[in-house]
Amino acid sequence: MATLSLAIWLPIAFGVLILAVGRDEHANAVRWAALVGALLGLFATIPLITSFDTSTAAMQFTENAPWIDRFQVRYHLGVDGISMWFAPLTAFITVIVVIAAWEVVTDRVNQYMGAFLVLSGLMIGVFSALDGMLFYVFFEATLIPMYIIIGVWGGPNRVYAAFKFFLYTLLGSLLMLVALVYLYYKSGGSFDILTWHKLPLGEHAQTLLFFAFFAAFAVKVPMWPVHTWLPDAHVEAPTGGSVVLAAIMLKLGAYGFLRFSLPITPDAAHHWAPFIITISLVAVIYIGLVALVQQDMKKLVAYSSIAHMGFVTLGFFIFNELGISGGLVQMVSHGFVSGAMFLSIGVLYDRVHSREIAAYGGVVNTMPKFAAFAVLFAMANCGLPATAGFVGEWMVILGAVKFNFWIGMLAATALIFGAAYTLWMVKRVYFGAIANDHVRELTDINRREFFMLAVLAIAVIAMGVYPKPFTDVMHVSVEELIKHVGHSKL
Description:
- The protein is mainly α.
- The chain is built from 21 helices and two strands.
- The chain has helices spanning 3-21, 27-50, 86-100, 109-128, 132-141, 143-153, 158-186, 193-196, 203-220, 229-236, 239-264, 266-292, 297-316, 321-352, 363-366, 368-382, 388-403, 405-429, 437-440, 447-465, 468-485; strands at 60-68, 73-79.
- A two-stranded antiparallel ribbon has the order 1-2.
- Helix 1 runs antiparallel to helix 4 (109-128).
């Protein structure tokens, strides 16, 4: 059974159908169709979890068919322990985003829902593509729905933010295309990514390829200093756009490092690891300080995302199992936590139409149920033990200490900064006396919002208390990757 094809094309088919026939006068039917499409996409990913063999590093659920015969481009899909969890995560977040927009988006509902469903399928395509050209097509195609989502339903500066997002990520990816074409000729006319992993490449070629891939993936993560598009995109994007951007799209770049940079250019990866570790630590520490002075809640969480993704790249380039597995766990947990943080801000914004921290105060007095969820997600964002936010960061810090004590210690300061900016926001928004009439008139969350936040809360706590299903899946594939990357010959 073509599990991955179903996970990719079911949401895309529903998205295209909704775009073609959906109209605003039938908005409710469009919403239900979108929910059915998102749920079918989620159900299609369940066999990945239930039937995944954790004892092998080989690709599973593979599909391989000719696509563009003349250039040996194939429709080749498969997942291993590194990529498996991202397909269910993407499908799950899409369901949440559809539910979150149910009553909020009333204009061009079919286009909004259709864009998210198409985007969901394309992102799962990125995580499961084993052909270089197929990967590139999916990787670039994800830009189009997100560009439309920000540009049409975003805030006052949405056009500027959408252009900045599009140009930054497109320019980075063009160098990757050059690298893919070089590898195609170097491998005797094959776009097979697994064949590229075995290519004997010289020092000069590896360095050039490493930076070509780095240009695409660093912008997507985004790493410091090419991170400036992200706060603008987050602030202007609608709530659903921010959730998908933080929870899934940032992971595409981090995943690229593990699928391309490390296995194809292992010597260059070792040689340039100190550079990557340095800019990752800058992201973790400096961006944490930048988050501390933000007045806009969305901007604060956007900067915290950059700091959290700094942990991921740090973990990948310390070349031990704790670090790489920790980076992967952090990618999944950040999907739950950052998505929940942006949804919480969206709940407040839908009522008060302000993201400014100063516009709130004492929300717990009028929205006690909502405040309980929001504070839980804030604690997870700080990395509180027994929440999803703790597991990955702790593993990366342990791996970093094993690699170099001082690097581990610098990474650990992020937990202090994370607690500082998150608790500072929580104190000013949720606690204290009721600050103004807007807060006094707030109504607590309805059943739809409660369900959406409760599902995420369960995911955040479950992953924090019992991360074994995630680490078991990754273990063998990460071990194999470390064995392959080995020790630097440069």
